[in-house]
Design a protein that fits this description.
about 525 residues; alpha+beta; Adenine-n6-DNA-methyltransferase TaqI, Chain A, domain 2; 2 domains; 5-stranded mixed beta sheet; 4-stranded antiparallel beta sheet; disordered C terminus
Length: about 525
């Protein structure tokens, strides 16, 4: 690999007079990478020389790598030792679709074949070049990326021609020190934002727990003691309405067949929801009751149901237009989303109408990301659920669907049931029987309303704060780029007339390199 020369020095009138521009190729010695044979254990066993690959390029300074090779690998393969204070660059990786990872190494390293390295000529500062490449990231990705390759890659020849704004050597060190200082301040700010975000998430969970355990409405309950029906009264009313609805439906079926009941034995066919086992459960707030999801579900046909299984609905039948199919991606934590949409033909929908959702159904994911819940919007278009999502229909006159969803999402006892009862062959999953038997806390309907009001107010405040944090976090990359743009246009630190101009520095380096003997690749490996 050829050493860099001193050609291509340019003055840019937009830069300070002591600065110059020079192609990256002229600023140092280049190194490539390779992979010692994996079939040779002596190349890898107990290796102590870092072998850097793209997966290690998550930090600015490389001290170690996930993989290491032995001294024997240096002599038996084409890998080279890269001296400390070199700039390491990823030139082949999927990450190049959006980022150009660079780092400087603080110890001798070797590289795999997806990496390149540049050892700057003295006294050019390696961190200065690293920051310059970060500043020029968009330009590098745009002008140096190879077309027609299955994996994103950078053309080395094009990369070497990228022009670097070069400050005098002393100013380079001042610029690096200033960038380090400012970036350190930004990182501390980021850490504060991350801590604040984590605290808000914890607070949100605390609000949800307080809501469904009665803590959030403790004062309201004290002021409205003995007013209206209790949770136990509400549960009896729910069960009575369920039974009455079933009896009405059964009589209608018999009438359609021209039959009349001879006695009341037909009523024994009613499947009364089993009461939950309350042994070991915590004490409830006054006026609350324990119940199950099955007891709260309406007697509508298939009140608790997932979508079609097997060949009834194939992924190949999805299309861009038609009737919406609600899957896992549409059920977020407490929010219905149309961000990801699969659809089926109108004809297919007619075949699968029994799986259609109803406005205000409660949805819960039962495969992959299990336990996510939301309420179907009132203005939902015609839609069905997939086999990965269960829908639960309730009588809105008896229980608020939003409260049932809140109980499924926020009650630690329910979450334990969701993840404790998850089952499946290849990945965790839930089924209708498990969901029906979830034990939940049931407050009076009036308190459900107050719980939802208080929860909405608290979550709205939390979401505003989270939005502010997200906005501040999105500004961080912009702020870093602003600092880098200022640094490499000569506006970050003051110029010192006593500094040797970059043009003289480059000319001196070129002269020194021209007189120096060219070392062999073998010598560089050793």
């Amino acid at each position: 690999m050829p050493d860099g020369g001193g050609e291509g020095i340019k003055r840019d009138t937009a830069l300070p007079s002591s600065w110059s521009k020079a192609p990256l190729d002229t600023l140092g010695v280049w190194f490539g990478g390779g992979t010692p044979s994996k079939t040779e254990p002596r190349y890898w066993a107990n290796g102590d020389i870092p072998w850097v690959s793209p997966k290690d390029m998550k930090v600015d300074h490389i001290l170690k790598s996930e993989d290491a090779i032995t001294r024997e690998a240096l002599n038996g393969s084409a890998v080279e030792l890269v001296p400390p204070s070199s700039i390491l660059m990823v030139v082949r990786s999927g990450i190049l679709r959006h980022s150009f990872p660079v780092a400087t190494n603080e110890v001798e390293v070797t590289l795999n074949q997806d990496m390149k390295a540049l050892k700057p000529h003295d006294p050019i500062d390696a961190d200065y070049i690293r920051y310059a490449l970060t500043c020029l990231e968009d330009s590098i990705l745009h002008s140096c990326s190879k077309d027609g390759t299955t994996v994103q890659s950078i053309q080395t020849a094009a990369l070497k021609q990228i022009e670097i704004p070069l400050a005098p050597a002393n100013e380079q060190r001042r610029i690096v020190a200033k960038i380090d200082e400012l970036f350190s301040d930004i990182e501390e700010g980021e850490r504060c934002l991350v801590r604040a975000e984590a605290l808000l998430k914890q607070y949100r969970q605390s609000v949800l727990k307080a809501a469904v355990t009665g803590e959030l409405t403790r004062d309201w309950r004290a002021k409205n003691k003995s007013k209206g029906e209790s949770g136990a009264d509400l549960l009896r009313r729910i069960l009575a309405v369920r039974r009455a609805a079933w009896e009405t439906a059964e009589l209608a079926k018999m009438k359609a067949k021209g039959e009349k009941p001879k006695d009341n034995l037909w009523k024994s066919r009613y499947d009364e929801p089993a009461a939950p086992d309350t042994s070991g459960l915590p004490e409830l707030p006054e006026g609350w009751a324990w119940t199950t999801v099955a007891a709260t579900a309406a007697m509508a046909p298939r009140a608790i149901q997932s979508g079609p299984f097997g060949s009834a609905l194939l992924h190949s039948e999805f299309q861009d237009e038609g009737t919406l199919v609600i899957g896992i991606d549409n059920v977020l934590h407490g929010q219905f989303s149309l961000g990801s949409q699969n659809r089926i033909s109108k004809t297919k929908f007619e075949q699968l109408k029994r799986f259609a959702v109803r406005p205000k159904d409660v949805l819960i994911t039962v495969m992959a990301s299990i336990g996510r819940t939301c309420v179907v919007p009132e203005n939902i278009e015609p839609a069905i659920v997939t086999k990965h999502v269960y829908r639960i229909s309730v009588d809105e006159n008896l229980i608020f669907p939003e409260f049932l969803e809140l109980a499924l999402r926020g009650d630690p006892l329910v979450r334990q049931q969701i993840f404790g009862e998850a089952r499946g062959q290849t990945r965790p999953g839930l089924n209708g029987t498990i969901i029906k038997n979830f034990t939940i806390r049931l407050p009076p309907r009036s308190e459900q309303s107050e719980i939802l009001r208080c929860t909405d107010d608290a979550l709205e405040t939390i979401e505003r704060d989270m939005a502010t944090i997200r906005s501040q976090k999105s500004r961080v990359d912009f702020l870093r780029q602003s600092i880098l743009r200022a640094a490499f246009s000569g506006r970050l630190v003051a110029q010192d007339p006593a500094d040797e101009p970059a043009s003289a520095l480059l000319a001196r380096i070129a002269a020194e390199r021209a007189q120096a003997p060219v070392g062999s690749r073998r010598a560089r490996r050793r």
